[in-house]
Design a protein that fits this description.
The chain has about 475 residues and is an alpha/beta fold. The protein contains 14 helices and 18 strands. It starts with a strand and ends in a 24-residue tail after the last strand.
Length: about 475
């Protein structure tokens, strides 16, 4: 393994900002020292990276991706190879993807399937959550085994009846199990039974365009499910992590629970912070590009989400990266919005969009790193290996140019999808170079990584609860 010194940059972590040089040896951070001090001058290495005028930040941790996810008769268009390469281009050096249990099959079989998809194909490191679609005695026992081997979080769905849906009894059982084994339940909180009624009624009225996807998946039904998930977790004595929070009313439920002292956590995604129902209403079926669940909300919800991120009622920004091409995939729902595959591309855009939020004054630089790197690493048992720059941490490091301008576009992105959800959006800030465990993956805007560099990373239990 080679050694590297990164000189002259502003090192930003969730807790500190310091002009420091960083010594990297054997894939890990060996030492930091303030720029110009004798300790820093003494650093020697085979490779020297000049970061003068740049930020030096931990690699992003995206705790919510769906590479190669089967959905609605098709598959997410990014493979683990293309998706992790795009992640690296966007300054993300760890993803936690979702392995899926098929109803009637074991958790183990689902996990093995996802290991086979990812192994040898990833440009950056990865872990897995487990989607639990079928709660029974065998599943509950398997949850204990998975936690022991480093799959420490389990996702359940209050939406998608007939596919991933769990009823309140199944949810309670899984939560009780996680209360015992240290696992963390992640919840897709939407009242899917009620939504299906509204979908059926909308289609019967001839309301088939993409914008109706947003109208039937009511904010109140997200808030109701969020409330119900919180109370079930309280009954079980278990922590709860609510994924892709999109609505003011759902944020209010999380804030109330946290004010009561409950171990309840919330994640939002860039699409809810930067896009809205205006996008879903774009003419000529273009709105289909923006169909995801929870859905995009009217623009006025954005202020609540930003406030939640500032007050720590929301702790994490992940992408829910689940790309489907417009041609041939999103188009499956022409004439019936309920058949549009749900999901947006975003794994490459998250760090840049959140830096734009710093530029726009929504969050501080350290909060940027906190919600994109440190907290997801802590939440999912990866810290301090991931999510920070400290002696002993993996040398997952991004050299970030805070002044470079760019325009987001499908022409220039590296995700395997034929459109950008942020087409034409100008942002300030850009990834210049990326190290993953000390190895250069992006070098001055050139891809120098390889499929198979990224390794599977077992996780400890949620570090917010100890």
């Amino acid at each position: 393994m080679s050694s590297t010194v990164i000189r002259g940059g502003l090192v930003i972590t969730a807790s500190d900002e310091i002009h420091a040089d960083i010594l990297i040896e054997n894939g890990r951070v060996a030492a930091l020292a303030a720029v110009g001090t004798p300790a820093a001058e003494a650093f020697t290495a085979e490779r020297v990276v000049d970061a003068t005028g740049k930020y030096v930040i931990p690699g992003g941790v995206d705790a919510h991706t769906h590479m190669e996810l089967p959905f609605g008769g098709t598959f997410a268009s990014d493979t683990f190879e293309t998706g992790t390469r795009a992640a690296a281009w966007g300054g993300t050096t760890t993803i936690v993807d979702f392995a899926v249990q098929t109803v009637g099959r074991s958790l183990r079989e689902g996990l093995d399937t996802w290991h086979a998809k990812a192994e040898g194909n990833c440009a950056v490191d990865y872990g897995f959550h487990m989607i639990v679609s079928d709660v029974n005695e065998d599943t509950l026992k398997e949850m204990d085994l998975l936690v022991e081997e480093g799959v420490t979080s389990f996702k359940q769905f209050m939406a998608y009846p007939g596919v991933f849906y769990s009823d309140d009894g199944q949810i309670l059982r899984a939560m009780q199990r996680s209360a015992d084994n240290g696992g963390l339940i992640m919840m897709h909180a939407e009242n899917g039974i009620a939504i299906d009624v509204l979908v059926e009624q909308a289609l019967a009225r001839g309301e088939t365009d993409p914008r109706f996807h947003g109208e039937v998946r009511r904010a109140l039904l997200e808030a109701e499910a969020t409330h119900r998930a919180i109370r079930l977790a309280q009954v079980a004595g278990a922590p709860l992590y609510v994924v892709h929070v999109s609505a003011t009313e759902a944020v209010a439920e999380l804030a109330r629970a946290r004010d009561e002292g409950l171990n309840v956590f919330g994640e939002t995604c860039p699409q809810y912070l930067f896009l809205s129902t205006d996008n879903l209403a774009e003419p000529d079926f273009e709105g289909a590009k923006y169909v995801c669940s929870t859905p995009l909300r009217p623009r006025e919800h954005q202020a609540s989400l930003w406030r939640g991120l500032r007050t720590n009622d929301l702790q994490v920004v992940s992408t829910d990266h689940c790309p489907f091409c417009f041609a041939g995939q999103k188009e499956l729902g022409r004439g019936d919005f309920s058949k549009i595959p749900n999901g947006l591309p975003g794994v490459e855009n998250r760090m840049d969009l959140l830096h734009q939020a710093v530029v726009d004054g929504h969050i501080s630089r350290r909060r940027w790193i906190e919600i994109a790197c440190a907290t997801p690493a802590r939440m999912f048992g990866l810290y301090p290996k991931k999510g920070t720059i400290a002696p002993g941490s993996d040398a997952d490091i991004v050299i970030y140019d805070p002044h470079a301008g760019q325009v987001m576009s499908a022409e220039t992105h590296h995700m395997n999808v034929d459109y950008s959800a942020y087409e034409g959006k100008p942002v300030t800030g850009r990834v210049e170079s990326v190290l993953s465990r000390g190895e250069p993956v992006i070098t001055e805007r050139e891809y120098t990584g390889r499929a198979g560099h990224g390794v599977y990373t077992p996780r400890s239990t949620c570090q917010y609860l100890h």
